[in-house]
Fold this sequence. Notes:
Layout: E1 5-9, H1 13-24, E2 28-32, H2 36-45, E3 48-49, H3 53-59, E4 62-65, H4 70-78, H5 83-86, E5 92-95, H6 101-113, E6 117-120, E7 123-124, H7 126-132, E8 135-140, H8 143-156, E9 157-164, H9 168-196, H10 201-209, H11 216-226, H12 237-253, H13 259-270
Parallel strand pairs: 1-2, 1-4, 2-3, 4-5, 5-6, 8-9
Antiparallel strand pairs: 7-8
Amino acid sequence: MTKQTxxxxxLGCMGSGMATTLLRQGFNVIGTDLGQQQRQAAQELGVxxxxxxxxxxxxxxxxxxxxxxxxxxEAVIKGExxxxxxxxxxxxxxxxxxxxxxxxxxLAAQLGQLGHQLLDCPVSGGGAGAAAGTMVMVVGGDKxxxxxxxxxxxxxxxxxxxxxxxxxxxxxxxxxxxxxxxxLVTTAEAVxxxxxxxxxxxxxISGLNAGSxxxxxxxVNFPRWILNDGFDSGFTMQLMRKDxxxxxxxxxxxxxxxxxxxxxxxxxxxxxxxxxxQDDFNCIVKNCGLGDK
Length: 293
């Protein structure tokens, strides 16, 4: 049986992790990235590196995007030499970028007019989850496209949740990341309070995780990346600040006044003064009562 070929644009932490999972699942994976280091690392994993989008489109009609921001997605899809120019008929684009819902909807409409399909499929789980195939994905787009993409999505993820029409996956992911950003702040403040009162932070986290105050932040982030001073999750301050800004914009578009979300957004925006873009996003706890912990 001939292996199915899947293309990946963006071979960073998440893209290379997804490539690892797809290769393990028996797919033929081709990929491209602007960075020589990323291309070399992916090639060592078994990815066939192609020169550009045209070369990728020549070989597959299933293309996964793993890119930093909406502007990069737009450039890859409709920029010079992009997917729209070179796609084979009935191409499916699976965008795993945490992006902007309205940009996604516009791109989906433009691709749809040409007979192609776009799903917004942002993911949670980090690079480790991408490589292990344990990510969680929320999906927006046409239901028929979702059903067609199911084998690829299931190969990549432990759980896939269909959210409805185009852009809805990105709305759900922005809300998820806003909660994540808030939970980092509130949990850091809780641990700071406990430490001041004489509790060992690790013991306190264990207690919280046994009770109703737990969250993914207390169950995963604190033990894995914060309490051990690891701060190496693979997701940066720059990316989380971007996601919080997008969530804040969504709140404004919806005409809502959400006081706690506004305060969380201010804390993350203010962190630019002392936490560089390349720092791990868990470093926000250093601004929330935990000092240099």
